[in-house]
Structures
1.
Amino acid sequence: MNSLFEYVLRLGDDSLIVGHRLSEWCGHGPILEEDIAMTNLSLDFVGQATALYEYASEVEGKGRSADDLAFLRFDREYKNLILLEQPNGDFGMTMMRQFLFDAYRKPLFERLINSTDATISAIAAKSLKETKYHLKHSSEWIIRLGDGTEESHNRVQESLDTLWRYTSELFFEDDVDQELTLSGVIPSMEGIKEEWSAYVNKVLDLATLTIPTNNWEYEGGRLGMHSEHLGYILAELQYMQRAYPGMEW
């Protein structure tokens, strides 16, 4: 296995899938400003995915383009976090999913800037600027909804109860990660998990939300084992390339 290719693919798949989920809000946002904001967030993630897939294509060296990697793989070949493929639900559900992911992505990119791989370092530096805004945006909404009306509080608490089970996979590590950590390409998850936990606890406390106490954990996305939701995403995402092979904008 080419560990570098596998790792870059995982990052690219995360960005593509969450970017697609956010794009589903276009024209459906609760207010005009949020409709525009979520569309812009989606564009940020698609831009990150493009850069990552282009590098993954180069690393793999088998002639597959960024578009091939994005649109012409089967579901078991995608390595995104299961958290990111979960349905949008209401606005609170989408913001909770985004918050839990943003709180992980920020410390990850901060450390990836120091990668011994120059391309990963450059992508992380550019992406970090966007990610800081993403985290600020989602954090403010979680606090606003959690510490808002009784209905908004109950809804976003339900969102947290639903999505918390997927957060353990944020810190998944296998042979791929261990090899790249030893060579200085990527950081260890230990420090990232500590920072994520401290920040998430702080924001949820301000939002008067309670972390679920059950021990349910769902993992497998990094190994290509997904929920049923990914299949529906790919059916929509891949339609044009499947119907008109080789199409380019």
Note: The radius of gyration is 18 Å.
2.
Amino acid sequence: MKVFGFVGPSGTGKSHRAEWVARERDIDYIIDDGLLIKGNRIIAGVSAKREKTKVGSIKRALFTDPQHAEDMKKAIRQCNPEAILVLGTSVEMVESIARRLELPKVSEMVYIQDVASEYEIKQALSTRKEQGKHVIPVPTFEIKKDFSGYLLDPLQIFKRKGKGSYQLVGEKSVVRPTFSYMGSYTISDYTIYQIVEYITSGIEGVNRISRFRAENHPDGIYIEMDLVLVYGYKIKPLLYEVQRKVAEEVERLTALNIKALNVVAKSLVIDPQKPPGQGSQA
């Protein structure tokens, strides 16, 4: 197995350019911030971006946790890559990661200055400092389940095909982790209720919410609610519609990952504005 290092100070754009560096050298696997990545998929590991402090993030990226390191070594043995690219803020960090994961000696070092201009590096550093944005080189759908409560943005990469014509060639994710802020990001259960109440009030066939419960967990949010429905609507399709719309909007507005959304039709009411049978077909 050939091991390559990709070195640059934090925030200079390594993760953004890692895929390009790997492709130029026929490398299929990347180790970046605690993750083993192949193409658009996370193969193993835990992202350092999930840690609550910068110190915790550095430790995670260095695989100081024995279980994390063991899981990564096992995944690398199973994949048996011909070459692997290890990202780090220094040569010492890359070599330390290689030792902890029992990889062969690093055969080549690539530096951020080799693949990015001084202007691009300054721009990346400014974005990190002012906005706290970190890039993870996989599509957002790959990491969303592990980043509940974090602010995520897809970063789509295009290449020019011709005048005014572009082709989508890949997607990365921008995440603003907790340690990028002065404090942590939380949303109260009552705020979730208000959002859900507003969404359901716009769904024809729903009268009101009679009971609501939300539980925040590290992996996402669990919601239970009982509904009073309007007589004359097909109950099962209506509940599916409520589930879909509530899940979509809550995830879009809050960046929380919906782990479960249980909806119960508790009772029915007659809509005084509409005689029975004139809803969405009883």
Note: The chain has two domains: 2-132+142-148, 189-269.
3.
Amino acid sequence: MELDQLRYFLRVAERGSFTGAARELSISQPALSRSIRRLEEELGRPLFLRRPRSVELTDAGEFFEARARQVVQLIEDTRAELTDDGESGRLRVGAIPTVAPYLLPQILQGFARDFPRATVSVQESPTERLLRSCARGDVDLAILALPIPQGALECEELFEEELLLVLPRSHPLAERRRITLTDLESERFIMLDEEHCLSDSIVAFCRKDLSQPLVMERTSQLMMVQELVSLGHGVSMIPRMARETDRSGDRIYRSISPVRPTRKICVVWDARRFHGRIHAEFLARIRAVALSA
């Protein structure tokens, strides 16, 4: 039994497909199939139920997946601990799309300057995907918005951020300094797709006032939300950090009165795994930025 076989098996189990796993592993599908078949022959049990377009784990496969993940994690952690020199190494950082482009660049720039021998990769995904990636060890830490499901991951709150109402400059409410939820009852809202937690925060805030936002359009990018607002398609709520990088003169941002909507940003990681000095340094820089937020 080889380490690569275990990695291949875990990737097929995660993707539920030999084709998708082979593509991500950069090997041919026949080579991947042969490797898994040899593993099954060695164990004397089928690990997958093979269907025309997908595969799923057998009972033996589910048992083996847990053990294989422990073995791979132990080997990777051991290698990382033995080679940790505090200057080099690989760090995989995850962040939700409404945080990544606004918070990470300033951290990455300084980190690359101070640790030129370290490699940092960034995964930008919605919350649920990042939690899975962090639990699997595909990312070392992830920056998310609360709440998140209780689990084995360590969670540290970083800061609380206001959500600002964004209006087209020509909107009648743009001239008013005090805007309440009542003023927005008949407004059409533009929001991110439902997999993005920012939409949940907006809906939850509106429901506190016993109102439901009238959602007319959804998109996958926060910048597109802002552009659609500029074009008069509706209004929305935007994190303050996105407002601070907006150089357009087509939009107006206002706080909502009397209670301002907010979201809480956190960082999560798997405390059961070994994390070297590069991880600790990057985490310290995230905390430093959070203090100034």
Note: Residues 59-83 form the longest helix (25 residues).
4.
Amino acid sequence: MEFKNTLAFAQNLDQQDGLKHYREQFHFPKVNGKEVIYFTGNSLGLQPKLAKNYVDEIMADWAQLAVEGHFYAEKPWWDYHERLAEPLGRVVGARPEEVSVMNTLTVNLHLLMVSFYRPTATRFKILCEEKAFPSDQYMLQSQLRFHGLDPDEALVTVNKRKGEHFWRTEDILEKIEALGDELALVLMGGVNYYNGQVLEMAPITQAAKKAGAFVGWDLAHAVGNVSLQLHEWDVDFAAWCSYKYMNSGPGNASGIFVHERHLDREDIPRFEGWWGTKKETRFLMKPYFEPIATADAWQLSNPPILSLAPYLASLQLFEEVGMAALIQKRDLITAYLEFILTEVDKEVDSTFEIITPEDRGCQLSVFLHGEGRSLFEFLMKNGVITDWREPNVIRLAPAPFYCSFEDMYRFGQLLKKGIQSK
């Protein structure tokens, strides 16, 4: 398709967009009385209007049924979380029994590492990407110290090549092979939060398994954004937050994946709690743990129903649309945004450098050479909600559920105005 940097062209793309009506299903903040151009779905997705209905349903059940809501609500609370497993499985490429929802992301990664990081005297090293998300770095370092290991020795990173802004798959595979029998765990971000790169998860997983290591993925920026086939790829475990592309609300519950070969096992090390024991005997108050034969065995406490309600509401939208349609629009709208950036770059006395490689979701990370934070502040004041990372990077994530092609055009005009008004 030959793009044009005109309002008419952008509006024509919107008219052809099969998902255009879903924009109306979300609440938009307003700046200066107008709906914002929202580029931060990679940090917090917009609120689906349906979410309030689901939360109100829980509140009504609580008011009218109190404790009996656990069993007699229209959606009983004691198995409420199970309703999320099947639609989430379709989003992440998993069987429903391999998926559960509980806690928050870093908590779940810690819990999963109890099962999947089991260092020995010879096999104890963890491999992650250079400058992983800080929470992952803290989590990995603290796990190593907990096991009496020195993070400087046991935590190995794959670095980007000098002068490049992305990782090369061959470098990751070479590092896995070099570590060999010392490698206990590969745990990386499936989509990098900073540059938006989608790592080649399938071959990386395959190489790690060949080396005899467990493989886990932090999918915070991947779920609801890119195509995932966790079961088929033979991933051991994964976890993700739900409030970015999944639009479930701030700080909301995390999803987990545990491959079916690890399920229904009593011998696997795991921190255990009441809600992970078999439903059939849970209320017999037995003194010993009998794991549920699904990923729910990793649950500790009864789930936070008020948090799960908006997640379930968002998943209804994912069920209606499907990941294939979202990815199709994602690719087109991100390509159009890239085109707009290139066109604006030709018209102004600045240089934009897109550091996101072709292996990407809907995020473009852009170096604004010659520009400072004042440009970011101009955009924010004029209704463009974007994200700033030092020293001069803005992250732009045109989420396909609710961003329009006209948004991309209008952003380009505001970007040009902000530079020219200095």
Note: The two ends are 34 Å apart (CA to CA).
